[in-house]
Amino acid sequence: MKIEARWLSQKGTRTDDNRDHAGIAGRHGEFLAIVADGATTGSNNGGYARAIVEAVVDWFAGTDDAWGHELIQAKLREIHQALRKTFPRGSASIILFHVTDKGSLTVLHSGDCLLGRHDGQVHWQVKPHTLANALADMPLDAIARSTTRHLLTQSFRSREFMAPDVLAEKKASGTFLLATDGFWAELTESEQEAFLGGGQSTAPERDDRSVLQLRLSAEAPSEILLEDGGSTNFTCGLRPPRNNPGAITHGIRDNLWATRCRIFQTSSLATKQESELPSIELSQRRALIFLLSWSSPRSIPRCFSSASQARPR
């Protein structure tokens, strides 16, 4: 399976920082994505959201733990406990998206980050955990208009661990969206399409709005492609293929969006060695694109090094 990922995020006006964060991680035959939306209230919920993303990405890319509902619930509980001291009042919504190269999909969500399918319009697959729809099912557009949707009945909050809801599919393909409430609740359908096309909102009062777009091509060779033209607040962790542990390289394009990417060495998992990608001056306006073979010995990872070689969507 080929996966093309693109992260689009715009800072809102309600806080000094953009509190939406995302990350992806790849290892042998598996792909994991996460989006976290730090609560608007509180002084450091943006840092809390980023810490959650980094912890999940580093765990998944740096270990060989077998994926399963019980394991990820236990790992999230462990991460929750580890972050409580640093973020005693932390609160964030999270959504995790795990897919294998065979197409088996598992989604876990807690709060008001949502999963959608996109085929020219968005078809939302889950409902948010809000007071607006706590007692009765409601259409999503009605939830979006409700003043009580900002009161969450479930989230990744420091004061207590709440197990996320789980959605599973045996065979997934097509385009998926992992979106924060600034995207699904504050934008009309036409505005959502404009945002996915790279447009920015000009509303004078707005929440952070973000979406991680994932295109899954079930019949294509196994690789992960990070598209250019995305945003900051993004973390990635990649594992080289077993048959070619030194194969991952990196290149320079226009416009940086992968602000942090760690390469985990398969030969040193016992000590979890990793290498940070070399830093480049921000004035160079660059981006990093990676193609990572999951399992096929015939698909050698490569990286674009000039704009003329790439064909961004």
Determine the strand fraction and express it as a percent band.
Answer: 25-35%
The computed structural class is alpha+beta
**Bulk shape:** globular
CATH superfamily: PPM-type phosphatase domain
Span of the ends, CA to CA: 18 Å
Short description:
About 15% of the residues lie in helices and about 30% in strands. With about 325 residues, the chain is an alpha+beta fold.
How would you explain this protein's 3D organization?
There is one protein chain. The protein has 313 residues and is an alpha+beta fold. The protein has a single domain (2-309), classed as PPM-type phosphatase domain (Phosphatase 2c, domain 1), CATH 3.60.40. Helices cover 16% and strands 29% of the residues. The protein has helices at 45-62, 69-83, 140-145, 181-184, 189-196, and strands at residues 2-10, 20-27, 30-38, 91-100, 105-110, 114-118, 122-124, 156-157, 165-169, 174-179, 209-217, 223-226, 234-238, 260-264, 274-276, 291-293. β2 (20-27) and β3 (30-38) form a beta hairpin. The chain is globular and about 45 Å long. The model is unreliable at 244-260 and 265-313 (pLDDT under 50).
